[in-house]
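Tokens in:
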């Protein structure tokens, strides 16, 4: 592969910038741009994991002073010889250092090319490469923890365990077909069904965890709804930690969707404070209510707010009818006042309620814990490995289908060689997930998400 280079730090003014060079001629490219002063050595003679201070130039023009780090193949991120030049963090000077490296013979790196080279050189699996992008884009504690576990191979190991079980069955089938006269154990219907059921259950567990993993990775869409003056905007402000929505005793104050991204128990949550649901002649307010109804359809979870100091009104009952059967947390507000609400009826329709007073500082914690529990995020094991995107999920769905067909065939007494064909197709899907048998098109699609420089 060619020698490539790119700016590895954000395109903004900062204290320091880095230009990364990787490939067979990384050292010679760096020597044309960087002259080591301390220690005074040739870059090509430096040991791996060492640094030098020196002068950065473009031809005869002095650009900056800086530091150079050397990594020798195969003990580098890409598995190739790598040099990283650190200069002052100005946009212009950083671009000039990059240009100097290109003049010295390096080629511009494509988006994600350094990580792609790490994949192709066997430094990481495809699922680990995808996790690198997730670490970079992480906006909350949970997704960062999960992404680091993925980067360390959590999902890859789960895939390898499942692949080993499939290969065990395939190998047993092949041995029994090819050497029937030897002491090879007979492949019985009972044995096949037992082994294949175990594999099928492994796939089902992975798929069952997908929604929780998606919410952690992409964020939780949360709609706050209720009739006017039940405390929706106050709750929005408490969860966001600032005055995001206007709070007023005048019904219909919130007419449009007010949105805010917050961090709840380590998970990113997109809150939407929706217009109060009620019959109104105000055309603008009507539009707000219509937008709220559409938002309900796409929300991952709904916080339905009710006034605990009043009996359920017709507007409350209309709201219950609209959201019944969805992922809902009924929030009973104003617990500091005498309760007149039928909480038992509410919980029968919508599930366990979070009873709060928006006047108390702990209500944000109560609601946050309720969201985490309702979405099963509190049971999610960040270190176990999970399906982080639709590509991975699609591979497991395909593998599960082939194993299911093999299981059905085994139960019907179909010959083992036909079952082996289905198992080979399942194995292909698992290996596409991990990258062992992924096509160039699949790999190219994965690296579209990456920035240049990583």
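Residues out:
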């Amino acid at each position: 592969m060619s020698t490539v280079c790119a700016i590895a730090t954000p395109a903004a003014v900062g204290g320091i910038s880095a230009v990364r060079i990787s490939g067979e001629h990384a050292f010679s490219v760096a020597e044309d741009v960087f002259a080591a002063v301390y220690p005074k050595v040739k870059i090509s003679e430096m040991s791996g994991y060492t640094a030098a201070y020196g002068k950065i130039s473009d031809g005869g023009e002095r650009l900056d002073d800086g530091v150079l780090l050397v990594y020798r193949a195969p003990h580098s991120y890409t598995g190739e010889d790598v040099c990283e030049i650190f200069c002052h963090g100005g946009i212009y000077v950083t671009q000039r250092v990059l240009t100097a490296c290109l003049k010295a013979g390096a080629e511009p790196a494509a988006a994600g090319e350094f990580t792609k080279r790490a994949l192709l050189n066997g430094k990481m699996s495809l699922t680990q490469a995808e996790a690198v992008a997730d670490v970079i884009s992480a906006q909350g504690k949970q997704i960062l923890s999960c992404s680091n576990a993925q980067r360390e191979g959590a999902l890859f190991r789960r895939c390898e365990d499942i692949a080993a079980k499939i290969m065990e069955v395939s190998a047993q089938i092949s041995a029994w077909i090819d050497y029937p006269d030897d002491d090879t154990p007979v492949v019985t219907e009972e044995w096949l069904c037992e082994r294949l059921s175990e594999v099928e259950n492994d796939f089902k567990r992975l798929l069952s965890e997908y929604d929780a993993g998606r919410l952690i990775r992409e964020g939780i869409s949360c709609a706050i709804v209720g009739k006017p003056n039940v405390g929706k905007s106050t709750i929005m402000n408490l969860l966001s930690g600032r005055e995001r929505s206007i709070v007023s005793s005048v019904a219909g104050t919130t007419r449009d969707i007010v949105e805010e991204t917050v961090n709840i128990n380590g998970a990113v949550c997109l809150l939407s404070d929706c217009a109060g649901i009620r019959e109104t002649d105000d055309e603008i307010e009507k539009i707000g209510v219509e937008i709220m109804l559409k938002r309900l359809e796409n929300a991952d979870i709904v916080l339905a707010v009710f006034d605990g100091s009043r009996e359920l009104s017709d507007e409350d009952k209309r709201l219950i009818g609209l959201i019944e059967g969805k992922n809902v947390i009924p929030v009973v507000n104003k617990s500091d006042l005498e309760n007149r609400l039928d909480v038992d009826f509410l919980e029968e329709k919508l599930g366990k309620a979070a009873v709060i007073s928006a006047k108390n500082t702990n209500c944000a914690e109560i609601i946050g814990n309720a969201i985490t529990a309702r979405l099963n995020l509190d049971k999610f094991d960040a270190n176990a490995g999970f399906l982080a995107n639709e590509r991975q999920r699609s591979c497991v769905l395909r593998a599960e289908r082939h194993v299911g067909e093999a299981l059905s065939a085994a139960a019907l007494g179909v010959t083992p060689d036909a079952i082996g064909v289905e198992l080979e197709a399942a194995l292909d899907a698992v290996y596409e997930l991990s990258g062992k048998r992924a096509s160039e098109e699949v790999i190219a699609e994965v690296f579209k998400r990456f920035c240049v420089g990583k």
